[in-house]
Write a structure and sequence with these properties.
This protein is of the alpha/beta class and 272 residues long. 31% of the residues lie in helices and 14% in strands. The protein has one domain.
């Protein structure tokens, strides 16, 4: 594997091994803020004694506060690679990295991810302070990646699909998605879980995120449903992995590449 490809951090092979250590062969639960995780908020107690590695995205604090903290759990990995989004959640990222535990921040230099941070902010200091907790991927429009020469290059896609691939690189036992609704909601005025919570921060609107549902649905189709059937086989071939079991605990999800199951089925799968 070429761990020195353009866009990677130094010592990427060691960072991959650290990610694998953090996951430790456990199932990874990726929790994103689709409205269907309201059921998880009410049922998360059932997962208290199950050894799961939790992954999150972007404004992760709302989910941690209202769901994971009920069972004294936290995210072990979070990802944000949006140049527009990072300034708004910078303090959350720092708080996450400052935790006295093995966790990882997943991001990228692609498209100038950190270019909109305040000029006074010392990004290099953060890298130096938490060096081993960072792992960076890259993106591109070539449809043959990942491959052995570009093991952390992914086809341009949505953050959920990238995070799933990082979990697979980390040798997860399996992946269960929560809140991956892809734009589906029974309530026409509902964008996502607890959408009025000020914890959903964005650097450009000063607070609450408002993404039209049709844009979410288009993003689901264009940047996951059409990409996953290409990039996941590339990933398995590059790493020599057997396909990873992936369950989406959202029966009405608009994500099509992954098996959609009920909460009962997902919990039974996880060992409840």
């Amino acid at each position: 594997m070429n761990w020195n490809a353009e866009g990677y951090l130094p010592h990427t092979e060691e960072r991959v091994k650290h990610l694998q250590k953090v996951i430790a062969g456990r199932p990874v639960a990726i929790i994103v803020p689709g409205p269907s995780i309201r059921e998880l908020e009410h049922r998360v107690e059932e997962l208290r004694d199950i050894d799961i590695c939790y992954f999150g995205l972007n404004s992760y604090t709302v989910i941690e506060t209202h769901i994971l903290q009920q069972i004294n759990k936290q995210f072990s990995a979070i990802m944000c690679s949006s140049r527009e989004g990072i300034p708004g959640i910078l303090e959350d990222i720092i708080d996450f990295l400052d935790r006295d535990e093995d966790n990882m921040f997943i991001s990228s230099f692609w498209r100038g991810t950190f270019d909109l941070l305040p000029k006074y902010f010392d990004l290099q200091y953060l890298f130096d302070k938490h060096n081993k907790k960072f792992i960076f991927f890259s993106l591109g429009f070539v449809t043959t990646v990942p491959d052995k020469e570009h093991p952390l290059h992914f086809i341009v896609s949505n953050s959920l699909l990238v995070l799933m691939q990082m979990a697979i690189v980390g040798k997860t036992q399996s992946i269960v998605l929560f809140g991956a609704d892809g734009g589906f909601s029974k309530d026409p005025d509902e964008w996502f879980y607890r959408q009025d919570d000020p914890g959903h921060r964005s650097s450009f609107n000063g607070g609450l995120i408002r993404t039209p549902k049709d844009a979410i649905i288009a993003h689901t189709n264009d940047y996951c449903n059409t990409i996953a059937p290409i990039t996941l086989p590339n990933l398995y071939e590059a790493y020599g992995f057997a396909p990873t079991a992936i369950l989406n605990c959202s029966e009405n999800s608009l994500y099509t590449p992954f098996a959609k199951v009920s909460y009962d089925t997902a919990f039974e799968y996880l060992g409840v």
